[in-house]
């Protein structure tokens, strides 16, 4: 029968470095020289430990204890071997193992959640991640996780995370009472997904020693179930929305909402659109820093209806805000429009991201294939092997045809007359 004992090798830096990580359950590799001294191999960590039993009491077997000596490669094999020999010596003399003999290094205790976020934020900025992504993370950090700002990351346990998830859910529910999405579930899930990313960064990228092997922010059964929000308009809702749009007094805001519907762009991409990125010859609009950062920059083909929209807003901008309209496509006093919601007597049933959802729905109704639609919406296509082979720049003419088809379908469905 095969042996069930853990393998034994001489634990050296070279030997430990060459050991593969465990594919599933953690594995134990025992040292061939010192009894009780072993390496705990997980999916992404290798930790030196020493296991022993306390003395018998009244003839009864003692309890099993484990001392965590250090994590490879932050602690060398020689250093932890010296610790293991010290434990052996203490036990041989009949002396107790001091409490905290091999505690988490002071550096880890000093790494607060705020310090970990600062390090992760610096890495995101270096990678060129978008300003809005970093701002969203900062908002989650400030709004939902302020009680943990000065808390050592290594001290946050799974139980703390579970309790905080429930607390965030309740706080967000009360803060948003009476609003459309007031359950607090999405806020809690989003905040702890952010915290999970911070923890993974300092654990895996910075290789911070002393952190537990399992991420306390892991999903498991922690997160609330989520479902996509069905906020987009169908064909039947377009005429009523068009009538609401025409009732708006501000011509720049009218064109803003229409362009958002015709383009399917994210809110910030439209609000911060610049004339310098408009190419009337192709015609296209360049988005240099969309969601995902500069590496996701793309060129949006423009349909005839979209060009007409830009012509109208350019004329209105020069009339109302001549200085601001030199830079911004959708100008406002001192800069560009900053809010898409309509306040006052005239309101729109769908604004902002709901218009992006509407674009997705209406494009499908217009018969646009999935690949071109994903590219037009600047969604990642790398997840699909076949799609990832597509040469996106070479598809520009085809993408403009698709954009023209979508715009024609939307304007016809709205029964647009100007």
TrEMBL record:
Residues 228-404 form the Tyr recombinase domain. GO terms for biological process: DNA integration; DNA recombination. Signal peptide: none annotated. Keywords: DNA integration, DNA recombination, DNA-binding. The keyword Magnesium does not apply. InterPro entries: DNA_brk_join_enz, Integrase-like_cat_sf, Integrase_catalytic, Integrase_DNA-bd_sf, Integrase_DNA_bind_dom, Integrase_recombinase_N, Phage_Integrase. It holds the Pfam family Arm-DNA-bind_3. GO terms for molecular function: DNA binding. Belongs to the 'phage' integrase family. This is Integrase family protein. It comes from Bradyrhizobium australiense.
């Amino acid at each position: 029968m095969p042996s069930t004992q853990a393998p034994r090798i001489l634990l050296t830096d070279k030997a430990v470095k060459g050991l593969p990580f465990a594919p599933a359950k953690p594995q134990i590799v025992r040292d061939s020289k010192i009894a009780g001294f072993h390496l705990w191999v997980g999916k992404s960590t290798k930790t030196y430990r020493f296991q022993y039993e306390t003395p018998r009491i009244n003839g009864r077997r003692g309890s099993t204890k484990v001392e965590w000596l250090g994590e490879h490669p932050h602690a060398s094999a020689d250093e932890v071997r010296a610790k293991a020999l010290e434990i052996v010596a203490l036990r041989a003399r009949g002396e107790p193992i001091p409490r905290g003999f091999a505690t988490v290094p002071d550096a880890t205790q000093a790494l607060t959640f705020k310090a970990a976020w600062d390090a992760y934020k610096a890495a995101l900025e270096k990678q060129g991640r978008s300003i809005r992504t970093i701002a969203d993370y900062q908002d989650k950090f400030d709004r939902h996780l302020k009680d943990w700002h000065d808390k050592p990351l290594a001290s946050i346990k799974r139980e703390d995370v579970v309790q905080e998830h429930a607390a965030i859910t309740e706080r967000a529910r009360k803060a948003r009472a009476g609003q459309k999405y007031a359950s607090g579930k999405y806020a809690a899930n989003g905040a702890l997904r952010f915290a999970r990313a911070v923890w993974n960064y300092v654990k895996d990228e910075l290789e911070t020693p002393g952190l537990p092997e399992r991420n306390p922010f892991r999903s498991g059964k922690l997160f609330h179930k989520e479902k996509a929000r069905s906020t987009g308009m169908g064909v039947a809702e377009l005429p009523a929305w068009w009538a609401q749009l025409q009732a708006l007094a501000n011509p720049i805001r009218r064109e803003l909402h229409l362009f958002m519907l015709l383009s399917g762009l994210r809110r910030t991409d439209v609000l911060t659109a610049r004339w310098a990125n408009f190419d009337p010859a192709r015609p296209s609009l360049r988005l240099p820093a969309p969601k995902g950062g500069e590496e996701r920059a793309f060129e949006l083909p423009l349909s005839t209806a979209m060009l007409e929209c830009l012509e109208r807003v350019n004329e209105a901008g020069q009339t109302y805000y001549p200085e601001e309209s030199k830079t911004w496509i959708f100008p406002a006093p001192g800069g560009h429009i900053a809010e898409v919601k309509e306040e006052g007597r005239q309101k729109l049933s769908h604004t902002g991201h709901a218009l992006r959802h509407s674009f997705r729905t209406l494009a499908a109704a217009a018969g646009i294939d999935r690949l071109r639609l994903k590219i037009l919406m600047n969604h990642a296509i790398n997840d699909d092997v076949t799609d990832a082979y597509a040469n996106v720049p070479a598809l520009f003419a085809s993408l403009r045809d698709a954009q023209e088809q979508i715009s024609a379908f939307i304007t016809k469905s709205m029964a647009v007359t100007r």
